[in-house]
Amino acid sequence: MTDIPRRAVSRTAKLAALPLGFAGRTVLGMGKRVTGLASEVISAEIQQRTAEQLFSVLGQLKGGAMKFGQALSVFEAALPEEVAAPYRQALTKLQEAAPPLPAASVHRVLAEQLGPDWRDLFEEFDDTPAAAASIGQVHRARWRGPVPATGRGRRAKAVARPVAVKIQYPGAGDALLTDLKQLSRLGGMFRAIQPGLDIKPLLVELRERITEELDYELEAESQRAFAAAYADDPEIFIPAVVAAAPRVLVTDWVEGTPLSTIIREGSREDRDAAGRLMAILHLSAPERVGLLHADPHPGNFRLLPDGRLGVIDFGAVARLPEGTPEPIGRLVRLALDGDADAVVAGLHAEGFVKSTDSIDAQAILDYVRPMLEPVAVDRFRFSRAWLRAEATRLGNPRSAAYQLGRQLNLPPSYLLIHRVTLGSIGVLCQLEAEAPYREIMERWLPGFAAP
Predict the structure, then answer these.
(1) How many CA atoms lie within 13 A of 275 on its CB side?
(2) Cβ atoms of 84 and 433 closer than 8 Å
(3) DSSP state, residue 376
């Protein structure tokens, strides 16, 4: 058996074993219930043990499992503290690290993608990866090959420059498909960790975007568009694309502090600055680029020494050539103004409520109003406590909000925007960042500012 099939079998076996372990712990919980132990204690114990096994296995994998683990890690702030606290370090590692590819395999990919004389393109190349993620890993190097034009169309000076070389794992596409198929069977486990969490839309979306994310030349196009739009921007830095092939992407190196480090040990000033800049990026990009950076986990952002936000990894983007849909900002403004009937009419028009359904307008307003608190005031500090409270309100089957939420629909055209928004909020809550979010929305979100 070759190395790749053996690794695939091992990955599948680990994923397949997860539901079995969960089933055993569920039986254990039922037995303890018979003995009279409180159901809340049983639930917490099962949640904690399930989380331990889940995060442990996801941390050992590449492919779809690793990518899903990274997506889940963004929502760590919404998990109950007794579940999240013991595994916060493991969740953080999922945001930036994965087992590395051997140097010999790296060299084979570079030869296939950049040519047999690939070493001539680099003054230096570090075989030890600087970072590894779901479908590829990044190496630090110094480039001396052809130099691309800058964002303003000028040729850059031909000098050796520090670069990041992203190399796709061999067989990454097959691994993604295999892992996503396995993960689709684990919905019950994620509901055990956070009741009400539905992973199916996320898995469907991940599957649909596999092809795009595997194409590094397509990613290069997106990154070039971002770099041109934010050239010389005083707050956002996008590294230039130096070279691209289907499975290798070379970009300028970004020197800065990862947001995962700031989340763990950053100062209050750095947390607030990172949160404000993330909000500016995600709200301004659709208007400035016609694209939305659609992978908002901390490993994709750096706080630069000069105070700018460095942004990397443009494999996942939402294409919004007309900018962010205007109804989003308009409906948020109407909800803050308390115009319940107009909000319901707008939700019907956009497909969030089926046209045949009758729904209580005031109940809808009561449902959405707490979510909008961050933009109802001049300044707001996101926090884990706020997100957990909202997750509990919306995810508790006994709550009125949960029952009302079951009547609402998420139109496919809004799915990716919705996920990016939730992911960004998850990171802001991990940062516990305070900023004038309302002012940022008034500047960049169509329809939000008063007519």
Answers:
(1) 27
(2) no
(3) T
Query: Who's near 36: CB < 8 A, 6+ residues apart?
Result: none
Longest dimension (CA), the chain: 75
CA distance 380 to 373: 8
Q: What angle do CA 178, 26, 87 make, to 5 degrees?
A: 65
Residue whose tokens read 């990041």: 164
Cβ-Cβ contacts under 8 Å for 373 (sequence gap 6 or more):
380, 386
Rg (CA), the chain: 23
Smallest CA-to-CA distance from 429 within 79, 192, 95, 87 is with 79
* CA separation for the pair 121, 109 (Å, rounded): 15
How far, in Å, CA of 344 to CA of 411, rounded?
A: 15
| Residue-wise burial string across 332-369, b where 16 or more C-beta atoms lie within 10 A, e elsewhere | bbbbbeebbebbbebbeebebbeeeeebeeeebbebbe
Condensed to tens digits (0 to 9), the pLDDT of residues 27-54 reads 333 333 333 333 343 345 545 555 555 5
Residue matched to tokens 């099939």: 5
- Distance separating alpha carbons of residues 206 and 95, to the nearest angstrom: 16
Neighbours of 186 (CB within 10 A): 20
Q: Which residues contact 72 (CB under 8 A, 6 or more apart)?
A: 58, 91, 94, 190
Q: What residue type is assigned to position 251 of the chain?
A: T
Rounded (10°) angle between helices 268-288 and 437-444: 10
pTM over 0.85: no
Q: Per-residue pLDDT tens for 220-248? A: 999 999 999 999 999 999 999 999 999 99
Helices vs. strands in the chain: H and E counts, helices first: 20, 14
Place of tokens 């939700």: 347
